[in-house]
Structure formats: structure tokens, C-alpha cells
What we know:
This protein is an alpha/beta fold and about 150 residues long. Helices cover about 30% and strands about 15% of the residues. The protein is globular, with a radius of gyration of 15 Å.
Amino acid sequence: xxxxxxxxxxxxxxxxxxxxxxxxxxxxxxxxxxxxxxxxxxxxxxxxxxxxxxxxxxxxxxxxxxxxxxxxxxxxxxxxxxxxxxxxxxxxxxxxxxxxxxxxxxxxxxxxxxxxxxxxxxxxxxxxxxxxxxxxxxxxxxxxxxx
Length: 147
């Protein structure tokens, strides 16, 4: 995989549109990535590293469906990272369930959109190297039986 640079995560770019007040079907987004974008039918090369970064705000429509789709995506060899924006942090457990294990290093939580630039370097490092240092406020989840 070619290295990703921080300019790819330019959250102030005018082409990036943020909407609020809607609903997020994270399960559907993960399904599209797994079955279309990062599948052989979608042009993904066999043996290539597959990484998906999901940017979410709060909870999704159906957290159980999102986690189920995430399990299928991880089984398909897709490394899942979650960038979550939530002032209250109420969706953290869902984000931890979606992210690849160890999920505490694959979830990037910020309280507000204006905090996104602060995580760019860590996100780039994680995408390129598959590692990053967890934030102190992110709890370590219990071990998962799967993926």
C-alpha cells in the first residue's frame, strides 16, 4: 500500500461536507466497503492491505447490525478504523465494537469537529503502520472472541 499523507485527511477542505441532524446507517456503510469497494469485484487486489476509515458522529441507527457487519469485514481482511465525534462519548462502546482489534488503538474519538486536526498525525501513522498509541481516556475493551 502506498503511504497515506496527512493532506488526505484535510478536514478543513471545502470538498468535505459535514451534515448534522440525520441518521447514520453505519452497517450499510461497512457492507458497501466490504462487498463493493474493497472486494475483488470492486477492484481490490488479492493480497493487498485493505483499510477503511469511518468517520461517524454519535450512535448509528442499529449498533448491533454495525458490529455484525464489522465482524464480516474484519473476517474479509479489512482493517477498520473509526474516527468518532461525540461530545458525550455515548457512542464509544459501538465504535470500539466496530474497530479492528485492539479497538482501543483503532478508535479516534474527539468531542467536536474542530478537534479533528489534532488526530490527523496519529490517524496517518495508524493507517500506514497499523499501530498508534491509545489515548489515555480510551478504555481497553474486553477481549473479543472474534476478529
